[in-house]
Amino acid sequence: MPDVSGLSGIVRDLNDIVLVQLLSALVLAVALLVAAQTLLPWIASKQSGRRRLYLLATLPALRLLIIAGLLTYSIPTIIEPTFENVVALLGAFGLAAAFAFKDYISSLIAGVVTLYEMPYRPGDWIEIDGVYGEVRSIGMRTVEIVTPDDAVVVIPHLKAWDRSIHNANKDGRNLMCVASFFLNPHHDAEQIKHALQDVALTSPYLQIRRPIAVIVQETPWATSYRLKAYPIDPRQQFAFITDLTVRGKAALIAKGVTFATAAAAVAADA
Amino acid sequence: MSESAPIQEQRLPLWQFVPLSDYQLPTAGFGQTAGRGVARLWRRLRPPPEETESPFTPHEDLSALDADCLRRVAPAPQWRAAADALDEALEPWLQARKPGVSAVFVVGPPHSGRQHILQEWAALHKWRLLKSPKPEQILGGDASWSKQWAKDETAWVLPELEHCFLRHVDGLTLIRQLFNVLGSEHAGRVVIGCDSWAWAFLQHVWTGHKPAVLVCQALDDQRLAQWLVHLANPRRSRYIFRQSNDGRFVLPPAFDVQFSNGKPLASRSYAQRLAAHSRGIAGVALDYWRSSLSARPDEAAAPGVKDDAEETGHFTIWVTPWDEIRQPSLPADAGHDHAFLLHALLLHSGLSADVLTRILPFSLSRVVQMLYQLEDAELVAAEDAVWSVSGRGYPPVHAFLEREGYLVDAF
Q1: For chain B, N or C: smaller number of CB within 10 Å?
Q2: What is the interface pTM, i.e. ipTM, of the complex?
């Protein structure tokens, strides 16, 4: 038979009245939760724009408030609130919380290390865990990245602690862009290389103070050209690549060059 | 410059052509560089100026000068004196008996009168003046344009190199052919004028050895004041320019002026701030100057205004204080689209809307919309369907493009 004498010293004597009080509080809390989860979205659906979003955003906080109210009422009703009992309970909760918040605290510490080492700053374009975007803000626990599709991705600093971080424009406005072209091999490569350099030179997006490079590589199925240049503003990198690609294609077609395709490569292999 | 010494005794050479490395921008006074807040503090702390015997009452009913009066007070400049200065700078080169190609570039910022100076100089020496190709010829690589300078000519002048290319994949062929000829022994003697913005871009297009470059030195405050006074008083005109809020002389008078109530003091900072703000460019300074001139309403259309102090025959033109001049500024929503358009206009020293759509990634409607928006902001103006950055718009546009990281000129 387990010894429950210590436990009986913590827990009050739960008579019928106390049990009814506890049950009533529970029923009331559940009713409030159901009402909030039903009424609030219904009211929000009748609103529009920001008001609707604000109302929906209050639901989690309201839920937390109701649960906290229930616990605040129930715990002193069940537990004898002596100093020793409170210390014992807090110790147990603290141990549980330490395990639960282990990763959270690690992220906080990683955030402090990030502020010191500065692997990225707001305005940098970085890639972590396959997510590429512009750093919008750096919090204590997380970093917010806005992707090219305008999605906000929140990444805990802990994720970046043991992974590679690709920073495309660390601390500056210089971010290299690459436009690739794959051409059928039968053409004058020197002429195409100069044509692509002119494509970059005549782009209004070009940061002309940075170098322009064309890397030519021969592969079994095509001659690949990688046109590398820098835009004036890193935020225009996609418009810049689009501009290079569109005008580059037009310039190459005007020179009578044909583009390699996957089907052509397969046919060539066959 | 002394308040009492007539301008004629301290005449400075207005126009000087120097190597590019010797070009100097006029500096702003202490007040402008340290910020307006410090400038106000400085004005409070410095010793108070001497008071005239009778206090000056600012005129509150002034109106802008009409076109006729403006033509007299601030006429379009004549560039013959500048052409003479260029001739003096080119004299050693003209006298040198060096065989083969010999080219000199004359580079200048927008609104500096460079094209007119070269045209005057070509007329002076009776050298052939080459016309720039049309945009269709540039994009088509029209060989007929290159024939005019591919001959075995001894001397020719091309005043506007900036109109010989377009920032387009097909727009660099003709100018590269010209550069190849300049690098050979068959060009003869040539003087080529180029806008400073186009020159900055062409440094990345032209990879060969570049010939000598001359630039017209920027007008500092003293030379700018001298030039403006000379424009208004070429022969027997007797205009004086006084600040409308305190009566001070904005420019030193070109002749001895008698005042029964005591001679007004001189404002030393106006010319300094005008020279610095306009970057020492004559046309930009003249545009700002013209927009700040006014006269009393009943005399705004008259030949001049007689000073109320004494019948001396001189005419007073009232000048808006520098801090009260309305400066053009970029629209609040100006972004990279506007920057692209303004940069293209400066690189090519003016383009039509149709040509802008060929070199920019915008539709015609978008280009036209932005042009009218910038015109409302007084930043651009059109002449014969060719849009260019206006004189008054040039300083804010230059600052905007430089701030945004675009390629700017060295002036």
Answers
A1: N
A2: 0.84
